[in-house]
Amino acid sequence: MAEFGFNEHHQNEVINYMRFARSKRILRLKTIDSCFEELKDSRLVEDTFTVDEVKEMLDGLQVVVRGEVEMELINTAHTNVLLLRQLFSQAEKYYLRLQSDISELENRELLEQVAEFENTDFKTTGKTLQETSKPKLAPLNEGGVSELLNKEIARLQEENDKLKARLRTLECQALNALDEKTKAERALKTLQKDQREHQMAAHSQEVSSLEDTVAALREDYKRSLSDKAASQRDLQENLISSKHELLRVQEQLALAEKELEKKFQQTTAYRNMKEILTKKNEQIKEIRKRLQRYEPDE
């Protein structure tokens, strides 16, 4: 049986199965022989028979032999299914999927090798084998499938450890990105606060200067009223002009504030802060997607 590449254990299993199949075959052949003997003893009691009588005997014998052969073929098929059931059940315990090539069952070369083994090696090996009763196939405890399963388990464990390490790295990157984003937001808020305070100080200074100007004009106006009543109209005109100037200055102040805000947004520091926040947001979104991708299903 060396041509099939079996080890000693599997070769013994094949020998046990062939011994079982041979015993069933011999028993069925004896049954067929008994059918012929029964026909001889029960029907062949006369010296001569007609054609119809011979035909009747052969037809009856054909029915009996056909039934015996059909029963043996059906039983053999069912027996092979039970043998495959044992093999598949044992394989499924180790999460294996066995495959078979039905076309190999009609391979004449292999069938001749099996016949040669049965006629030669099987007879000699049967004399030295000890009879053992094994109701079930012995599990593979070392080598073979167990070794492959252990390697696969080790590989999966190593891959799992790598994924866990990768997940921890991504978590650290995410935390660092969040920390940097928080620092950038704080820096931006501080810069905006300083800019607002600077704008408010400049605005207050200009308003105070305008108020002082108005107060001085009012003092001049009062002094002019007490000094010269004739110049009242001029003073009133000056006052109106000053009010218009105040409104114009306030309008210019508002425009200056808007221009200052626009210039601030165009400054390098503001653009850098905005770009940093945009990049950090994109990094956080990408890291969250990667975390969802590598996160194991619970």
Outline of this structure?
Helix content is 82%, strand content 0%. It has 298 residues and is mostly helical.
| Main β-sheet description | none
The parts where pLDDT drops under 50 for at least 5 residues are: 127-143
Shape: rod-shaped
Structural class: mainly alpha
Number of E strands: 0
| Helix and strand run | HHHHHHH
Mean pLDDT: 80
The tally of helices reads: 7
Separation, N- and C-terminal Cα atoms: 50 Å
**Radius of gyration, taken over Cα atoms and rounded to an integer in Å:** 53 Å
Helix content: over 70%
Strand residue content: under 5%
Tell me about this structure.
- By secondary structure, the chain is an all-alpha fold.
- Helix content is 82%, strand content 0%.
- The chain contains 7 helices and no strands.
- Helix 1 runs antiparallel to helix 2, helix 5 runs antiparallel to helix 6 and helix 5 packs antiparallel against helix 7.
- It is rod-shaped and about 180 Å long.
Features:
single chain, 298 residues, mainly alpha
Question: Any chance you could write out the topology, listing elements then pairs?
Answer:
Layout: H1 8-43, H2 51-93, H3 108-119, H4 121-128, H5 144-227, H6 232-265, H7 268-294
Helix pairs in contact: 1-2, 5-6, 5-7
